[in-house]
Amino acid sequence: MDLSFVVIQILTGLASASSLFIIASGLTLVFGVTRIVNFAHGSLYMLGAYFAATIISRLLDLHYGPVSFWCGVLLAALGVGALGVVMEVVLLRRIYRAPELFQLLATFGVVLIVQDVVLKVFGPQDILGPRAPGLRAPVEILGRRFPSYELVMIAAGPTVLGLLWLLLRKTRFGVLVRAATQDREMVGALGVNQRLLFTGTLFLGAFLAGLGGALQIPKSPATPRMDLDIIAEAFVVTVIGGMGSIPGAFLAAIMIGQLQAFGILIFPKVTLVLVFLLMALVLVVRPYGLLGRPEGPAPAHAAAFNGAPRPWGPTERRIALGTVAALALLPLAGDAYLLKVATEILILGLLAFSLHFLVGTGGLVSFGHAAYFGLGAYGAALACKHLSLPMELALPLAPIAAALGAAVVGFFVVRLSGIYLAMLTLAAAQILYAVAFQWVEVTGGDNGLVGIWPSSWASDRTIYYYLTLAFSVAAIAALRHAIYAPFGYSLRATRDSELRADAIGIDVRQQRWLSFILAGSAAGLAGGLYVFLKGSIDPSALGIPVSVDALTMLLLGGLQTVMGPVVGAAVLHGLKDQIMPLTDLWRLFLGCSIIVLVLLFPNGLVGAYEALRLSSTATKGAASARRREPDGAQSRPRAPLEALARSRASGAGGETSKADETV
Amino acid sequence: MTAPLLAVEGLSAYYGSAQVLFDVSLALVPGEVLALMGRNGAGKSTTLKAIMGLIAARAHRLEFRGRSILDLPSYRIARLGLGYVPEERRIFTDLTVFENLEVGRQPPRSGRTPWTPERLFSIFPNLAEMSGRRASEMSGGEQQMLTIARTLMGNPDAVLLDEPSEGLAPVIVELMTKAVLAMKSEGIAVLLSEQNLSFAAAVSDRAMIIERGQIRYEGSFAELAESQEAREAYLEV
After folding, report:
1. Band (A656; pLDDT cuts 50, 70, 90)
2. CATH number of A343-608
3. pTM of the full predicted structure?
4. Domain assignment of residue B153, yes or no
5. Closest to A175 (Cβ–Cβ): which among B56, B93, B103?
6. Helical residues (DSSP H) of A485-507, grouped into ranges
7. Is the pLDDT assigned to residue A579 strictly greater than 90?
8. A252 or B221, higher pLDDT
């Protein structure tokens, strides 16, 4: 490795660091002010690339020259900035007070919508953008050729950093943004219209995402998959740098740029893994990133989740027994297709229930539950393929493989909380996705593994259905039992107040770790059942969409309920099955549905049932009394989500956070 | 009696399903200092927050300068000329003293000399020396002065002042007394939430006592000073 080669690698690393920073700076800025992790930031980046590819080509047709090119870049970024404004006004300002899970899901709804819209508008094929006029010839550095556009990119990062610094330090807007980052309520009480401030911030954040996408266009084409690829990396950069810290994002982008530039020489296939490992390492040493600082006392989400699950009454018991009985009789209908869908629903129900065990009872908002589903599936598939084990031996390996994976990931995860926890679980799932994708010899890469079928006795669809029914019901019953067992009670204690739980002798980390392993193994079982149903497995089982689907099931069924996720799985999968064949806009439909659910029905379907039940039994309950207005008194109106957030911020939860503060 | 600047009738507030304020009524006339006294947890801060639109509240009447502020977000209440100084100070520790004042700056109101950092430094001389310093590097007393100065930058007609003497050294409390009197001499009305009787006595015209979210006593400060009974019942620990 001679010097000139090292220099070129460093320069390459700096160029990719610049472009990463430009994107991540927008994400971290928006998070700093609004406290929302904008999943759709990657979509804005993608739109920037598509806009630039289209606009620049047109402008260059009119007049070929650098001016046209750079005007095109700016126009594309401004266009994306305007979309950011629309997104803020229509969606984000309604969810600022919502629990972070809702925010992530709602912005993921935007991701889904944008994906389908981009496909409709720009088509499925990649769009090659024009190269930058005047920067096409490479320059020679130490005897090696280096693209001159990359030099411009290297300069772009520090330029954006400098301009952002000026904006944030030297303008009133900047001072207000920095103040709002720390205490937005107080900024409001001082007479500042936060709405304008937030809209402005979203414009700036979206502009930066669009700029990143537009600057990318001379190097690589605009493709419909670039949104999720970049968002994972941008998350990593902001998390390593410290959420909300722009200099931190710059530092982290440089680290990752260099890691990728040199990592590719040593481990050409596992650069993604290296990046996520760096993130895990940084988070263990500095749980709030390099330049981040602890968030204030995390708002307790007790009220948003199943605060205190009610044991079943006779009605519920009858419903549950009836459901199981109906499921057992289902094969009598003799509809093979129905049976297939029902099998899938049972598997997804188990997946959703295991996730809810973490989210609802443990308060651990995992955004990468697909990891354990996929680990189980791959575990069983690999045992089947490479060890030639029969299903009877391979299937039990599924929950074991997932439990082991969950134990490793959980070890890191339980040391974090809030948004950092969600990001790390997501990162873990992305590592596994990258491994499955890149380790072609073992996992088959993109094609996956095929020909994984049940043993002959179970290959009949009806038998396999009963097998799935038995395993799913047993696993769900076991997890449900754990929720009502002392284990579940102490787990809920750690969710509602970490400090108090600690003070009464609960080992918080161990409790969370065990629940992580338990939920992971249940998800792994679901994965194992899935792979033998389908006969094949590919990396998409580990992808972000699977995790989000599972979370959507929770949301649909109702986060405050115990059995809701199973209902959510049935409804979502049933809908998918009905609607997907009819339209190629399924993601658009799903995205809109998620957003509507978050905004209008934050308590989900089973939550609505519970409310109905409550209002019919408790006529003088506190909840209904609060609704009634005394004569002539007016009150401040509250949106459903806000009401949820407020009941969360006060009551048991509020006390908790106050107590935590004092301690 | 002059028309009240701030009129509150039948104010109730809730934390979740628990009611914490019950039919609180009060009126603040221009230029007066009204002390809202009570023990810890009696509902003083909650009253101020409910008026300021920071927590969900219900009222028969909640008006500032003759305009209902019940439906307004807090930034619009502030822009009408009602300032708020929180108990926890909530200064922006990442910002310099000067920047903190900038956040509070609002256009001047007619008929008043607008507040500028320079004018504020004449009331709070300590702040002048450290205007470029980060607020995180200030002492508690200095932060308390900054939070009042920051609110005054909005040129308010009335200020909700939440326990300004809490946790401060006696010498700083004296400075606080001067600051409140300076505000009063500027014609700014103050609704002061306070536990410290001697501090409140030094600055207030009238007193109200709140206990368990209900107003229990109302009268001039002179009357309260004479009423051993009221003091013992509601204020002493």
Report:
1. very low
2. 1.10.3470
3. 0.84
4. yes
5. B103
6. 486-496, 498-503
7. no
8. A252
Residues in chain A within 8 Å Cβ distance of B17: 622-623, 625-626, 647, 651
Q: Structure tokens of B58?
A: 């219900």
Judge contact between A475 and A346, C-beta under 8 A: no
Residue whose token pair is 């330090």: A169
Is A177 touching B (CB cutoff 8 A)? Answer: no
User: How distant is the Cα of A367 from the closest Cα of chain B, in angstroms?
Assistant: 29
pLDDT in tens, A284-316: 788 888 988 776 545 544 445 555 677 788 888
Contact, A241 vs A292, CB < 8 A?
yes
Instruction: Say yes or no for a CB contact (<8 Å) between B95 and A179.
Output: yes
Please report the pLDDT score of residue A641 as a whole number.
52
Residue B110 forms part of a structural domain = yes
Across A494-498, A585-589, A650-654, B146-150, least confident range:
A650-654
> Which residues fall within 8 angstroms of residue A469, CB to CB, at 6 or more apart?
A327, A328, A346
Phi, psi of A33 (to 5 degrees): -85, -45
Question: Pairing state of beta strands B206-211 and B33-37?
Answer: parallel
* ∠ Cα A545 A595 A301 (to 5°): 85
Does pLDDT of A627 surpass 70?
no
A198-214 residue pLDDT tens = 999 999 999 999 999 99
Cβ neighbours of A192 in B, within 8 Å: 75, 103
The structural domain count of chain B equals 1
Q: Which domain holds residue B149?
A: 31-42+80-234
Nearest CA in chain A to B76: A191
Q: Residues A127-138: pLDDT tens digits?
A: 988 888 888 888
Q: What is the pLDDT of residues A151-173, one digit of tens each?
A: 999 999 999 999 999 999 999 99
Give the H/E segment covering residue A144. strand A144-146
Q: How many CB pairs under 8 A join A and B?
A: 106
Q: Shortest CB distance from B52 goes to which of A189, A623, A625?
A: A189
Best CA proximity match to B179, nearest among B125, B124, B139, B129: B124
What are the extents of the domains in chain A? 14-224, 343-608
Residue at B57 is within a domain: no
Put simply, the answer to whether A635 touches B57 (Cβ < 8 Å) is yes
> For residue A457, what are the contacts with CB-CB under 8 A and spacing of at least 6?
A463
Is pLDDT above 60 for A123? yes
Mean pLDDT is lowest, of A394-398, A568-572, A628-632, for: A628-632
Q: Are the beta carbons of A186 and B90 separated by less than 8 Å?
A: yes
Which pair of tokens denotes residue B50? Answer: 């409910």
Span B193-204, pLDDT tens digits: 998 888 998 999
Contact status, residue A564 vs residue A606, Cβ threshold 8 Å: yes
Helix ranges (H only) for A414-485 are 418-438, 440-443, 461-484
CA angle at A354 for the pair A436 and A444, rounded to the nearest 5°: 15
Q: 């290296």: which residue's tokens?
A: A274
Candidates A167, A636, A638, A658: best to mutate against B (most CBs of B within 10 A) is: A636
Cα A178–Cα A106–Cα A296 angle in degrees, nearest 5: 35
Give B71's contacts in chain A (Cβ within 8 Å): 634, 636-637
Q: Which helix (H) or strand (E) holds B202?
A: helix B197-203
CATH of the domain at B184: 3.40.50.300
The reply to whether A629 touches chain B by the CB within 8 Å rule is yes
- Closest of A38, A176, A166, A182 to residue A111, by C-alpha: A38
Rounded alpha-carbon distances, angstroms, from residue B107 to A14, A179, A452, B168, B179:
46, 19, 72, 32, 22
Query: pLDDT digit string (tens) for A478-526?
Result: 999 999 999 999 998 888 888 889 899 999 999 999 999 999 999 999 9
Q: Using the 8-state DSSP alphabet, how is residue A222 labeled?
A: B
* B111 vs A231, residue with greater confidence: A231
The two three-digit tokens of residue A303, written as one number: 């009220």
